[in-house]
Design goal:
- Two copies of one chain form a homodimer.
- The first copy, chain A, has five helices and two strands, in the order ααββααα.
- In chain A, strand 1 and strand 2 form a beta hairpin.
- In chain A, 47% of the residues lie in helices and 3% in strands.
- In chain A, strands 1-2 form a two-stranded antiparallel ribbon.
- The first copy, chain A, has a domain of 76 residues: Multidrug-efflux Transporter Regulator, Chain: A, Domain 2, CATH 1.10.1660.
- Chain A is elongated.
- The interface between A and B is large, with 54 and 54 residues.
- The structure holds a DNA duplex (30 and 30 nucleotides).
- Chains A, B: This is Redox-sensitive transcriptional activator SoxR.
- Chains A, B: Keywords: 2Fe-2S, DNA-binding, Iron, Iron-sulfur, Metal-binding, Transcription, Transcription regulation.
- Chains A, B: Pfam families: MerR (PF00376), MerR-DNA-bind (PF09278).
Chain lengths: 159, 159
DNA sequence: GTTGAACCTCGACTCCAGTTGAGGTCAAGG
DNA sequence: CCTTGACCTCAACTGGAGTCGAGGTTCAAC
């Protein structure tokens, strides 16, 4: 990436502009602005008020994207990232710790979907979806969890 | 459920009011209105403009809730439901067919999350999240899929 | 010293899956 | 008759994760 074409690397070379971070991370500039507003990443400003990022912002952004794939909302990602040191660049241990948190999360989500799949398999056999007889239609698990919607599923009276 | 307490059953007894459907399905009245606007369920109206539902609306609603747990957006659920007969109540075979569709979907989602988990496990070892070296940060799979966000993740140049 | 790409802020808009509230109607009991 | 609770419509709002555009500035090159 020598200075030719549309995007030569200027100044310091250790710091990155928002456009460079966008190109390298695959995240749009507007999303990076947004992440900054949400406290997921931080930047220094130049004299002319332009953002300059430390190179480890790329890992932060990568971590954000991965976490989103796991299904974690930005607010919790921000929370996790806030446990990273603010001054020094995070170490391998730091990322390891964060990744481990999500593994647990992911295991739970997979287990949940597998239960759902098993129930669904049973119900393909029974074809029921009856509110009283069907595990699927009347789940006892994960009540207050997982997004908006009704907090309870009442049972159909027998008969 | 004889006529006593807060909610006696009026009129026909084979048809259900919106409040009854809400109580039996666990879905709020406002959500049922919303589902109707989205074409997920339908109702007849009384002389006084009140909704009356056929009893099989309970299965439709159950199907909607289950489908949401699978992760299918309402628009696609509506699409699936639109393949049901509009006149007669759907048969066991009908529900079976629909459920089978979601099973495939669910299998794919589970497989995807399992891949993600495996990658994450590897990355806990490597602690990398480097945009070039890490499968996690740079996935080749499921590109145009799964929600909003950037459609590509560029690679970090080597070195 | 001017051009043009890249940058800045701010507010408004999108989509999804609903919820909330205002203002009005319907139906049954006392 | 009047009250009460369930019902009706319609519009506006929520929240999450951004996108889009207007209007203005900075910066590197020519």
């Amino acid at each position: 990436m020598s200075p030719k074409g549309a995007n030569p690397v200027p100044w310091d070379h250790t710091e990155l502009s928002v456009g460079e971070v966008a190109a390298r991370s695959g995240v749009s500039v507007s999303a990076l602005h947004f992440y900054e507003r949400q406290g997921l990443i931080t930047s220094r400003r130049t004299a002319g008020n332009q953002r300059r990022y430390r190179r480890d912002v790329l890992r932060r952004v990568a971590f954000v994207r991965v976490s989103q794939r796991v299904g974690v909302p930005l607010a919790r990602i921000a929370e996790a990232l806030s446990t990273l040191p603010d001054d020094r660049a995070p170490s391998v241990r730091d990322w390891e710790r964060l990744s481990r948190t999500w593994r647990t999360e992911l295991d739970a989500r997979i287990a949940q979907l597998q239960r759902l799949r098993d129930d669904l398999t049973d119900c393909i056999g029974c074809g029921c979806l009856s509110l009283s007889r069907c595990v699927l239609a009347n789940p006892r698990d994960e009540m207050g969890e997982e997004g908006p919607g009704p907090r309870r599923l009442l049972v159909d009276e027998p008969g």
